[in-house]
Fold:
Amino acid sequence: MTRFDFNHPPFDQLEPAERQTLEAQADIVFFGDDETILGPGDTVDALWIVLKGIVREMAGDEVIGVYRKDDVFDARALVTGATAHRFVVHEEALLLSLPRAALIALTERNLRFGAYFFASVSEKFGVLSERSGSRELQTLLTATVGDVELRTPVCVEGSLSLREAARTMKENKVKSLLVRDGERLGIYTTTDFREVIIEGIPYDTPLASLANFRLASVSRDDFLFNALLTMTRSNIRRLVVLEGGEAVGILSQVDVLSYFSNHSHLIAQRIARATTLAELAGAARQITRLTSILNSHGVKPVQLARLVQTLNAQLFERTWALVAPGELVANSCLVVMGSEGRGEQILKTDQDNALIIRDGFPADGVEAACQAFSAALEQFGYPPCPGGIMVSNAAWRFTESALAGQLRQWTWQPAGDALMNLAIFVDAEAVTGDAGLLASAKARLRELIADDAAFYARFAAAIEQFDTPLGMFAQLLTREADGEAVLDLKKGGIFPIVHGTRALALENGVHACNTHERLLELARLGVLADEMVEEVGEALAFLLGIKLESGLAALEDGQVPGNLIAPERLSAPERDLLKDAFAVVKRYKQQLRHHFKLGSF
Structure:
């Protein structure tokens, strides 16, 4: 008989003997065009796998699923015992029928196999993430600080002289000492000896007077990725490793970098030391390479996006410092917005930035600096924003007073793109300069829209711009690229989640910009149920992951990454989860419609 490839999930979780048992009980069944395989309410006594042909899942007249070679249906009905939809052959099909009784027996013995049938939607997203993360024997995501061969700390008393400290370092072949001064614990490194020489500090000076007691530490059980992020953000080279509150090791830059073939910490250092735009362009290219490497190591899109956001912010800050006069930097606030502001942009995308200038600061030199900044970012691979949302556009350079007036217009007299521009601004994050200028503007915005239910409804209504039908493969395949049907992930899934969450966050005074952080805070406030937050968060992470994979593939082919993906290029479990993700989006939109009473608009 025609054999099924058991390497496809969830069957790849079965042991060889379990596969043989199941295959021995399988049947091959042929169905002609338009034949009904299952109908609403039918008892389900088998799981079906498509060997050849196409099967459609119908809810009334709406196509909510399309199944092709190696696709499986109806796993949900296998658990409940009855199907809610109709499964009809679109092109004559050869199907493999696996008995329900045999499958249920296997789920009781093999928990990982059973998880496919009994797990929640959010758990299924997690399972796929774990599977993709196992591409390396040990990934950066799962590696902990304790997995690294830590350097045993050498601890000395603060009364030790500088001369004795140097001798201790030499004898123990270390580059740092932990310094105990009463209840305080500090660190002194070989780098600190430069100041001793430069300042002419006597060699008998007690170590306690020079050690750094503001220690940056990490738990032995913490993820190595978090340690890397701490080093990158703080631009430091060593972390003290704690276990049970006690120092058990020193984690150095070299230790962490051994896990990387293209290191984020080195990129951060290269950015900090750059004195020309050409040097920064090289660092920008490294960020893209690092993204590909970390993705292949199984780092989740959400965490990867936050690391990229940190590196991008450092890149933008250094670029602004090179092109703008120091007085302008000190009297303004450079902000990024949109997905960059939310920390959800991984690959380079359109520039979304603005400049807030302190009232009374002279305008001389502002235009030239802003034009140079936008041109530099384009040189680094960040294309100009088609809508002109960049500092090079005078419309996105504001004095404090002008921004206050613009916010009033966007909220009280919205016209044209006003609400879209406001949504972009809501996600603004300060990159460099006086962050208080942005904080004041956001505080003013909250005052303007306080307790204005009508405004929040108008603002949230943008989620209705694009439909998210469950029959996405039939109705969202709205464009073709080189004859291949493609799906717009942003319109159908990412935007409704991001904007709906943004609207709820704005209404409830949530200051976070990142969508996942907003969701967690909304759950804490009781605005959203924990289950909804978990499913929406996992759905967004899955969609961003699919978008990232597609974007990296496009870059390898010399193309520009975008929001369009070809479902036919996805694996069977990915297509199944894509359907689940859009189902989550649809439920979320229904809740948002009810909450904001969008039916009246």
In short: The radius of gyration is 28 Å.
